[in-house]
Amino acid sequence: MIRMPFERPTEHYDERIIDIDQEICSLIKKRKEVSDNNPGFPPLEYISKWSEQLGLYEGFLMSLFGSMMNEEQYKPMIEPAGFRQHIAILKSVVKGERFYTLTSLRQYSNASVLTLNIDWDDEPEVESNSHQHRHYELDINGQYDCRMINGGSRSDHASYKYVVSPPLPDEISGIQFRFKEYSHPFKMGEASDEIVFEL
Prior knowledge:
This protein is an alpha+beta fold. It is built from 3 helices and 8 strands, in the order H-H-H-E-E-E-E-E-E-E-E. It has a 5-stranded antiparallel beta sheet, with no helix packed on it. The protein has a 3-stranded antiparallel beta sheet with strand order 4-7-8, with no helix packed on it. Strand 5 and strand 6 form a beta hairpin. The protein starts with 17 loop residues before the first helix and ends with a strand.
């Protein structure tokens, strides 16, 4: 998702803590390395214990560990600029009750924008989890940075837009678009399904 520009919340900074803050940053880096950048989230019992031992609020610690778990969402994102052309894709995949479609690719000088459309039959009398909101992470041969910039859904349709950088080649035959489905954003948990488009 596109992030709003950050504004420093105050002009105040106590320079006496600069070494402590640098040590905190160093420990965060070490934590990433030791966990192979997959730290998970501490059990709530640990957070309660640390809160009590250190005199810190549990909610603050939960927020802190939640932010560290999702560092990828803070990675700077390319803003598509210099529109060049549309490229037709016109590919679809049927999986279970869902119909997945890639219609076209928008080419910019610094990125590509891809839209995934999903359709299904909305029958209220049929017990189904097809209406549950899902999250799709795009991978293109592990060679591109792929980020969802927006998306939405209604009772029988969903649409998600992804920025891909560097830009994809204009000749896209041979490229594989792999969408992994998660029940939560930011690749939390195991992927429940995978939708693959072979061009």
